[in-house]
Amino acid sequence: MPELKRLHADHAPAVLAFELANRTYFAASISDRGHDFFDRFTDRYNASLAEQEAGSCAFYVLVAEDGSVLGRFNLYDLVDGTARLGYRVAQQVAGRGVATATVQELCRLAAARHGLRTLRAATSHDNVASQKVLSKAGFVPVGPATPADLGGRSGTWYQRDLQP
């Protein structure tokens, strides 16, 4: 059974393998991370761990029994009880309810562990799968997302109020 775990230094090789294996799949519906992300992966990964340690972000990985990463679920810009949610799941588990179940679990953790009251997430108009995940996880559309919000694509912001 996959387990949602807080990002740790030991996850780096599995996270990199996940990002590389799914790069083309992700680029079909969300902005590509670009070559720089992979060229400077270790530096960027360590910077993410530092941000997490500072408390401005909380990063999670969905880890399979074999230690491989099946998804990344991130809370960004934790300020005044709110945060932005971002996530991506491996192509091999897409369409099986994994993203929805994990987003729901992260919503519980966001309230219980991080004291958050509101989560926001943006998705592009053409990313129907993500729209379904957010809706099933209790998020509601709250307004337009600009290309600046979504790496060059237009879309919608969704929001969910959390229960403590």
What does this structure look like?
The chain is α+β, with helices and mostly antiparallel strands and 164 residues long. It contains six helices and seven strands, in the order βααααβββαβαββ. It has helices spanning 12-21, 23-27, 35-39, 41-54, 98-112, 128-136; strands at residues 3-6, 58-63, 69-79, 82-89, 118-124, 140-145, 155-161. Strands 1-2-3-4-5-7-6 form a seven-stranded mixed sheet, sandwiched between helices. The longest helix has 15 residues, at 98-112.
Fraction in beta strands: 25-35%
Per DSSP E runs of 2 or more residues, the count of β-strands stands at: 7
Quaternary organization: single chain
Instruction: Kindly state the percentage of residues in helix.
Output: 25-40%
Shape: globular
Give structural attributes.
seven-stranded mixed β-sheet, 164 residues, 35% helix, alpha+beta
In short:
This protein has helices spanning 12-21, 23-27, 35-39, 41-54, 98-112, 128-136, and strands at residues 3-6, 58-63, 69-79, 82-89, 118-124, 140-145, 155-161.
Q: Topology of this protein?
A:
Layout: E1 3-6, H1 12-21, H2 23-27, H3 35-39, H4 41-54, E2 58-63, E3 69-79, E4 82-89, H5 98-112, E5 118-124, H6 128-136, E6 140-145, E7 155-161
